[in-house]
Design goal:
Tetracycline Repressor, domain 2, elongated, Arc Repressor Mutant, subunit A, 2 domains, 204 residues, 0% strand, 9 helices, single chain, mainly alpha
């Protein structure tokens, strides 16, 4: 007997992930402007109505992909750890995620097509960089109340920390000039950048 009605919560999550995985593959293959909703629905084996109900449209679907990626490093930021350890753990997850080949490629799609699709740029920034900065700002503000960080605008601190992580090497990666870093390289990268951010480079 076929069961009707809403799928179980676990199945809903699997269906959403399958849809996002399919959409990612299609965005990478076709770009943003050349990909229509009918193709996404057909390849993901869902109805157009499902996509619109869950994501509001193609831009929302793209934004959900970015949010899923940012979820994986935003969740790693914990107030329960020592501040330096928390920042290193965040940095490791952040650098690992943004240096994966699919993420580098989807960022290239964004850069190429955002001038023609303002909603694409908005979804990317709100679900990725802005969301990350907000979480980092809250972290710095909380640690300032405990006396760990200097009394600077916590949003400014968040911006500077993210900038120290991306660095010139990320630009080289985006251009295909260097290979994807492995876990050991990312861990070293994260620790060095965090230490420099916290303690500076002037010799005592």
């Amino acid at each position: 007997m076929v069961k009707c009605g809403r799928p179980a919560k676990g199945n809903e999550s699997l269906s959403r992930d399958r849809l996002l995985d399919t959409a990612l593959t299609l965005f990478l293959e076709h770009g943003y402007g050349n990909l229509n909703m009918e193709t996404i629905a057909r390849e993901a084996r869902v109805s157009m109505r499902t996509i619109y109900n869950q994501f509001g449209g193609k831009a929302g679907l793209f934004g959900a992909l970015i949010r899923r990626c940012s979820d994986q490093f935003v969740a790693s930021l914990s107030d329960e750890d020592k501040p330096e350890d928390a920042l290193v753990a965040f940095a490791q997850q952040f650098m690992y995620r943004i240096t994966r080949p699919d993420v580098v490629r989807i960022r290239a799609v964004l850069i190429a097509e955002s001038p023609h699709f303002s909603e694409l740029a908005t979804q990317f920034y709100e679900q990725g960089p802005q969301r990350t900065l907000e979480h980092l700002s809250q972290f710095f503000a909380a640690q300032q109340t405990l006396g760990y960080f200097v009394e600077l605008d916590p949003h400014f601190l968040a911006e500077q920390f993210i900038s120290s992580l991306r660095s010139e090497r990320f630009h080289q990666l985006q251009l295909g000039l260097v290979p994807t870093p492995n876990e050991q390289e990312i861990n070293l990268w994260a620790r060095q950048a965090t230490h420099l951010f916290l303690y500076g480079c002037k010799k005592a």
